[in-house]
Structure formats: C-alpha cells, structure tokens
Design a protein that fits this description.
The chain is mainly α. It has 17 helices and two strands. The longest helix is centred in the N-terminal third of the chain and has 35 residues. The radius of gyration is 22 Å and the shape is globular.
C-alpha cells in the first residue's frame, strides 16, 4: 500500500499539462508587438547591462583588452540555446516562456522549481539594473552626492558582508516601483515607452562607437603593461562566464508571446536577430573602449564618460550618460515585464497565489502580478548586495538553458507535434518517459 502511495506521489510530481490548456486562447492580453517591436524589446533587455554595467568591470578586473574574445566566447557558449528557445517559442507560443516548456516536458515539479528560481533571478536582476541606473543619474545630476549621503546617513551592519549592501539605495527602490506603475498601463503604452527608450539607447551607442573610433590607439592592446591578455589566457574563460547572463535576455522574449501579433513567427525570428545584433554591439563597444584607454585606467562605473572627458570631448560624456540612463531604464522595464508575465502564468496555474493570474479587463495587463513583482523587487536595493545575489543566480540561468536544450531533444525523440488547439484531456499524469504527450 505504501508503495502505491509513493508511486502516486512520484507521478503527481511529474504531472504535465498540455500546453494548449495553459494559456493558448485563455490569456486576454492585447496583441500589440510586431516583429520590429519584439526585436527592439529583445535587444533592450540585453544591451543595457551588457554595455554599461559589465563591460567596464570586465575590462579592468577580469580580462583587460582581451574582453573582445570573452564576448565572442560567451556568445558562442549560448549559441545553441538560441536555436532551442527559438524552436520552442514557435511550438508553444505562451507567455510563460521557459516555465511553460518545463511544465510541458518535465512536469509540474521541475517547472515549479525553475519558475520560482527564474522569478527571483528576474527580481534581483531588475534591482541591480536600477541600482546602476541610479548611479548614472547621481553622476550626471548630483555629482555622486546622493550615494555619499545614503552611505553616511543610513549605513547599517547586519553581518554577512557579502549578502548585505551596507546602506540602502532608496532611489533604486523607488525606480523599481515607478517602472512597475508604468507597466500597469496598457500594453500599447508599455510598448511605446520601451521603444522610445530603446531608440535613444541605440542612437547613443552608435555615437559611442562612431566618435570613439577617432581616439583608438593600438598601443593600448599590445604595447601596454601585461599585453593583450594581462591576466592570462584563462581570463578569457572567466570573462565569458561573467557575461553569460548579459546574453541570456533572449530567454525573456517568449514572455511576449501572448502580446505578439504573430507569436509563432515573430518571437522566433526576434530571438535570432536580437542575439546577433547584441553580439555585434558588444564586440564593437568593447573594441572601442579597450583601444581608447589603457585597461588599468578604465573607471568600472563610468568608463565611457570618463574616456571622453580625458580626450577633451565633454559633450560626448553627457551623451554617454543619457544613453546609459535610457538603456538601463529599458532593460529594467523589460526585465520587470517578463517577471510579471512569469508570475501571472504561475499564479494562473495554481503554483503561486491565484490572484496573480488575473488580468485587468480595462488595461488588459496582469495588474496584481506587476505590482507584486514591483513590491518584492523594491526590497532588494534596500538591504541586499544585488551583485552578490546575481553571482549566485547565474547557475540557475545556465541550468535553465540546459533544460531547454534537453527539452528540444526529448520532444524530437518522442515525436511531439505542434500545438494546434485544445485536446481531449488537459492533464497528463506521470513523467515524460511514462507515456507520450499526444
């Protein structure tokens, strides 16, 4: 008898739901994102953090001028996952994205673990981007006085120096809430705001590459202390591992499936186009920055602005800061939007609170899921060191990519067909190897 109960429990953990019963034809989102909007969204979620947050840090502390090779290697490492995500986005056009893929193939238990893990990773990443955004606003408007004020007046010591930040980032916490408020408006408004922020950041990055090309000096690559790889050949692999999370923004693109005009075509195509566009931008900006200044003199927080100040082009420094603010705002907006759609799907399926899976009929957005993510995300900048939490969560991103690649192999092996409409039964008991999903 105990054995029967144990078998039933294990089968319940592996219970899968046919994808057509999860969100296809049930979600009431407004379909406003066309192909260009999806490409802009996918590029925006990756470019902000990769160019303005991680690039200066990697150049100065990890790889030096060899950052170009690190970005190329990082792109190569996630290249296969791009094809896997694009294929599954075409097969299962649902806003849950990777959560839906895991639920369809591996069952409820794996989907629950990965869904909650991805949700926490998104909230931590959004908080980290907002902290970087406040640093650039403080640098441009307050001359870094805001950070000094917060550190002097509100510093604390809870122990665990690596986990806690030491002082709260009030402006970053407020920005998380403000972006959440923006996301509670109609999808057309979200698309408009995100598109304009992305367009500004694209123009600014193009100016950085064009103007910076006039100040390149190849002596900063070869005739410099330590040479092209001052930290050794292994630093290229270390840098590639660090920047993997900046490439994984295409993981969030399937969250737009229920808001896309043609989800099966547009999400898949946008995944490929946005990835290769961001790869070119990463390589181009890393070449310009590493050639324009010695790696050891790069400012880890405001690298490009300081470079243009050093070469007596102060107006370009202000342009860089405006571009960084627009890019980081767009990245935070996209990350929180993806997190809210993930929370909506998990709430609708009963894994999280049911009220998260409700769409407001007027705005046609999951208001409860958006504000829930906003309230949880605003806690991180007040207490925690988001950089440390991101390092802990990177393994979850890599595990997610491994599971998606494995899902593609299993679906091909079991001969799973495309989803065309509702089937006779929604629930499929047992694990994926017990019986076919059709």
């Amino acid at each position: 008898m105990v054995r029967c109960y144990w078998r039933a429990f294990v089968e319940q953990l592996g219970t899968r739901i046919r994808p057509e019963f999860m969100s296809y034809g049930r979600a009431e989102f407004a379909r406003v994102y066309d192909l260009m909007d999806c490409i802009s969204w996918g590029t925006g979620v990756m470019m902000g953090a990769g160019v303005f947050v991680y690039l200066p840090i990697i150049i100065k502390y990890v790889t030096g001028p060899g950052t170009v090779l690190a970005y190329l290697l990082g792109g190569l490492l996630v290249y296969t996952s791009v094809f896997s995500f694009a294929e599954l986005a075409s097969r299962f056009p649902h806003c849950g994205g990777t959560y839906v893929y895991n639920y369809t193939v591996f069952g409820e238990f794996v989907a629950s673990l990965m869904g909650i893990s991805l949700l926490l990773q998104h909230l931590v990443m959004a908080a980290d981007v907002c902290i970087s955004l406040t640093e650039h606003i403080d640098y441009l408007v307050f001359n870094n006085s805001l950070e000094r004020f917060e550190e002097k007046q509100f510093s604390y010591d809870f122990g665990g120096d690596e986990i806690f930040a030491g002082y709260p980032h009030f402006l970053a916490s407020l920005l998380v809430l403000l972006i959440s408020v923006v996301l509670t408006t109609k999808s057309q408004v979200n698309n408009f705001v995100g598109s304009w922020a992305n367009n500004i950041s694209f123009i600014m990055v193009a100016l950085i590459i064009f103007v910076g090309a006039f100040f390149v000096d190849f002596n900063n690559w070869f005739n410099i202390r330590g040479g092209f790889l001052p930290y050794g050949y292994t630093s290229v692999f270390k840098g590639a591992i660090v920047i993997l999370s900046t490439y994984l923004g295409f993981v969030d693109l399937p969250c737009l499936s229920d808001e896309s005009v043609r989800p099966k075509q547009d999400i898949s195509n946008a995944t490929h186009v946005s990835f290769f566009f961001v790869l070119v931008v990463y390589v181009a900006v890393s070449v310009v920055v590493s050639l324009a200044a010695p790696y050891y003199s790069v400012n880890p927080n405001f690298a490009m602005a300081n470079i243009f100040m050093d070469v007596n082009v102060p107006w370009m420094a202000y342009v860089v800061e405006i571009g960084s603010i627009a890019a980081l705002f767009s990245t935070a907006l996209c990350i929180l939007q993806a997190a809210s759609r993930l929370a909506f799907c998990m709430g609708r399926d009963g894994i999280l609170f049911r009220f998260l899976g409700v769409i407001q009929p007027k705005s046609r957005v999951p208001y409860n899921a958006v504000m829930g993510c906003g309230f949880l995300g605003c806690i991180v900048p007040l207490f925690f060191d988001s950089t440390y939490l991101i390092r802990l969560s990177e393994m979850g991103y890599l595990l997610n990519c491994v599971l998606v690649n494995l899902a593609v192999i299993l679906l091909r092996y079991t001969g799973k067909s495309e989803v065309h409409g509702p089937g006779p039964e929604a629930i499929v008991p047992g694990w994926f190897w017990d019986q076919p999903t059709d």
